[in-house]
Predict the 3D structure of the following.
Amino acid sequence: ERKGVILTVDTRSRVDLPLEIGGVAESVTVTENVGVLQVESPEISTTITQDQVQNLPLVQLGRVRVAAAFVYLTAGVHGNVNINGADNLAASNQIRVHGSRTFQHEFWVDGLPAGQMGQIGNFNESAPPVEAMREFKLQTSQLPAEFGHSAQAVTTFALKSGTNQFHGSAFEYFRNDKLDARSWFAAARAITRQNEFGATIGGPLLIPKLYNGKDRTFFFFSWTSSRRRGLDNFSRVQIPSPLNVQGDFSQWRNAAGNQIPIFDPASTRSNPAGGFLRDVFPGNQIPANRIDPVSAKIAALYPAPNAAGTLNLAAFIGEKQLDPDLFSSRIDHAFHQNHKVFYSFNSTNVPRFRVDNPLPDPLTSGIIQKISSKLHRLGYDSILRPNLLNSLILGVNRFRNPVRSNPAGLPA
């Protein structure tokens, strides 16, 4: 009997079992020993266990906590870490391992790749909830043959499974500017409202009077959601003045104080000396009957300048709404001690609304972006012989990132 052998995700361990002389009634149990030397593979890797995932502080990458941030605990890993919770979810692209370039870090979930096609390192937009992670391992060198297409490093995630007892949790993390200190150079605290909450539950699959899955069928479900409201960076844009909207440009002056002429395009004619000639609008004002009705309606939508100065500036602070929802579920079933199957499903929905200028609808250049990701995994593990294990995993990844303007048209 050999106790204290710990197997982590995607790890091969060699255990030598010595033969003992029969009839000896005395035994020695070793409870503390040195780490097991990895002699089955030349890989260099770091494993993050479930206890570490639950107890270590987690940097927020983008709009919601993502377990990929733990890769920075590994020696030789560096990159840009988004500790301010900005709306960019592509922070995992910035991970560099042992001097490698970006987009060379691949992520696997339940035995198959989970990164976006075309952007092999972008995992945050399809990552399962942190609470659904059992453990994961970052391999940084001497990758096994199954990772031969990966350029530099691979992070393998294993999701939680249910047990014979029901377990669950509920949580909430929040950020609020009322609890923040004002920056030294800022006139006021930046507005931030963010709540991240969720729940988990797992156990045997029970259907009253129909099925008792104890010792055979287990499930685990995790849900994480975040609601964030805040303001974007302060900006200014130059807009037409109320007089300009009416076609009056008599106030237009250059730096020397001279009037900037507005020419009538309908008066264009050839110049005998070469080139073309145009007449200036009388008084530098465009007659009302020369303004196109469509242009007049669009010009009427411009707000009045609200910033000091003579440049007709409109100052604004853009609004952001970030409401991601992450779901993860897994079902395990044991037909026999040597034959087991599982199915896992992960869904990530990240709607994003952002206004990029102070102009009212429909002149705003704000966008509506609805990122969605679906990961399906179906696996079958069988022990064919004491020294032969067969593992078959099928999977489907689907990622969508539609972007449209807000709103989608002008009034009639």
Summary: The two ends are 82 Å apart (CA to CA). The longest helix spans residues 293-299. Confidence is low (pLDDT under 50) at residues 82-92. Helices lie at 50-55, 242-245, 293-299.
